[in-house]
Write a structure and sequence with these properties.
about 500 residues; alpha/beta; Rossmann fold; 2 domains; 3-stranded parallel β-sheet; about 10% strand; elongated; binds nicotinamide-adenine-dinucleotide
């Protein structure tokens, strides 16, 4: 497994556990590998530490920085390195993938067959380039095949998602002519691994492709059997596109919910009622309809940007995706502005944010992860700091060193929700951690209020119901729902009008 990050480590540990194969997780980051060898987890992911420990103890999982040795001994080599946004243009930065492909090519055993599987999220055409790079760098007798196997796990539930996927997609090389004339439509019925023929058995390449299909089938059979997930064999282009299309669709749902939430605020409606009602429609579904501060993380923002760029380059622009990206960027700025307005109150003068104290609860891009990459919370904190606010932030899992690298000395990182609330003019909830809600509930409005300079909450994750704050002495702002004012007479009836006027 080349790349031992969120995807590589989870996939490696899960394959070792479910398929009972020996997995070597390789990473170029020696610190990460040393930590894993000492039994320390470099990332926070529920259930992962136990899984890793068990498989290490049983001799199926090990860690190394020596890519060449790991590849030489492997039947299957996964590429699970990062594909971040390329600075400036939004394209996926494929330099890590290509460097890994070159190194794999140089290390392939010869003679012998090796299957190379790309798990990183990559633009259409990447598998082809990986194949060329491996070919250019491998020894003459080496035999290999490249397939595409995008990963759909979500941070925070990664182990569960990997063991119980909703589908497994495997992209194989095929002869297009063959497909049109000989391949039958494939079945997505659970447990039926599709017998799609990619190359006629008389064509060159038949053996390696057949080997690839057999190995992937063997590897995924235990997971498909336990989870009942369909295993879909597609061509490589389809597999590469499925991943981007899925993430763009999820991003679109979130952005849609956010737009409707804005509408709810001025129309006097409650977004949670509206999304609950539309989510009951099986054609829509309830997931990814939570209104909030904008989507973030290491996947949705970069993958929507990459899809938009791919589509532009292929002269088939995806306008919808472009609009989603713009909408999300604007949303994060708007939420920062709304928090600033909550600080300055009726004056509505942003200069008055200078020197005021904002307590921030949550920095990761969502709960149950330590990841702050492309986190809306971090973006919003940076905007508030630029307006001159003093920010004191708490997160149950965010890595303080990493956050400090991104935000510098401008933000004070503290170890509890109480400390973040101390002396705050506004307390802003930016990540939906249950721990945050529990800490605030344990204090109660009186306890919380006694810590703060002003009793104002901005709940960008709708952790509470607005009515929970009625008569509490707090002004409670949330997303797509009526604001509760400390002066309760103004609450509900005037809430929507109030919000609109203040934002104009
Ligand atoms: N994080 C997710 O939730 C998720 C979900 C699905 C798909 N993906 C995709 O999976 C890929 C990996 O994502 P991630 O979040 O695991 O990234 P990550 O940054 O957590 O891990 C990538 C790892 O690869 C290592 N690496 C880079 N080049 C290397 C090389 N040549 N040899 C050895 N190690 C190397 C890095 O040191 C790093 O530890 C990306 O393409 C991402 O889009 C991520």
């Amino acid at each position: 497994m080349i790349g031992t990050g969120y995807v590589g480590l989870v996939s490696g540990a899960c394959f070792a556990d479910a398929a009972h194969c020996c997995v070597v997780c390789v990473d170029s980051n020696a610190q990460k590998i040393d930590a894993l060898k000492r039994g320390e987890m470099p990332i926070f992911e529920p259930g992962l530490a136990d899984l890793v420990r068990r498989n290490v103890q049983e001799g199926r999982l090990s860690f190394s920085t020596d890519l060449a040795a790991a590849v030489r001994d492997a039947q299957i080599v996964f590429i699970a390195v990062g594909t971040p946004s390329r600075r400036g243009d939004g394209h996926a930065d494929l330099s890590y993938v290509f460097r890994a492909a070159e190194a794999i090519g140089k290390s392939l055993r010869s003679p012998g067959f090796t299957l190379i599987v790309n798990k990183s999220t990559v633009p259409v055409g990447t598998a082809r380039r990986v194949r060329e790079l491996v070919q250019r760098n491998c020894a003459p007798g080496a035999s290999f095949e490249v397939v595409s196997n995008p990963e759909f796990l979500r941070q925070g539930t990664a182990v569960q998602d990997f063991m119980y996927p909703e589908r497994v997609v495997i992209g194989m090389w095929e002869n297009r002519f063959q497909r049109q004339h000989e391949c039958t439509a494939f079945s997505s019925a659970p447990l039926h691994l599709h017998e799609r023929r990619f190359v006629a058995d008389t064509e060159p390449g038949f053996d390696t492709r057949k080997n690839a299909q057999t190995l992937m089938t063997q590897l995924y059979t235990p997971i498909a059997r336990i989870s009942g997930a369909p295993v879909l064999f597609t061509n490589v282009e389809e597999a590469e596109l499925v991943k981007y299309a899925a993430n763009a669709f999820l991003a679109m749902k979130l952005e849609f919910a956010n737009e409707i939430a804005d509408l709810c605020e001025v129309a006097g409606a409650d977004i949670s009622v509206v999304t609950h009602a539309i989510g009951l429609d099986a054609r829509i579904g309830p997931d990814y309809l939570q209104a909030g501060p904008g989507f973030g993380g290491s996947c949705l923002p970069k993958d929507t940007r990459a899809l938009a760029r791919i589509a532009q380059e292929l002269w088939r622009p995806c306008r919808l995706v472009e609009t989603v990206i713009e909408g999300n960027e604007a949303r994060k700025r708007r939420i920062a502005q709304r928090i600033a307005l909550a600080v300055v109150g009726n004056s509505a003068d942003m200069n008055h944010v200078y020197g005021r104290c904002i307590g921030v609860l949550g920095l990761t891009f969502k709960a149950h992860t330590d990841d702050t990459r492309d986190s809306p919370a971090v973006f919003i904190v940076r905007e508030l700091v630029e307006l001159g606010a003093k920010v004191r932030a708490y997160d149950p899992q965010a890595n303080h060193r990493e956050v400090h690298q991104i935000l510098g000395d401008d933000v004070e990182l503290v170890c509890s929700a109480q400390e973040a609330a101390r002396g705050a003019d506004v307390l802003a909830v930016l990540t939906e951690w249950p721990e945050i809600r529990q800490a605030c509930d344990a204090l109660g409005p009186e306890g919380l209020g006694s810590l703060m300079r002003h009793r104002v909450i901005f709940d960008a994750r709708n952790l509470w119901r607005p009515e929970d704050w009625l008569h509490s002495g707090f002004t409670y702002h949330s997303i797509g729902r009526p604001t509760i004012y400390a002066d309760t007479a103004a609450s509900f009836a005037d809430a929507s009008v109030h919000t609109t006027q203040r934002l104009r």
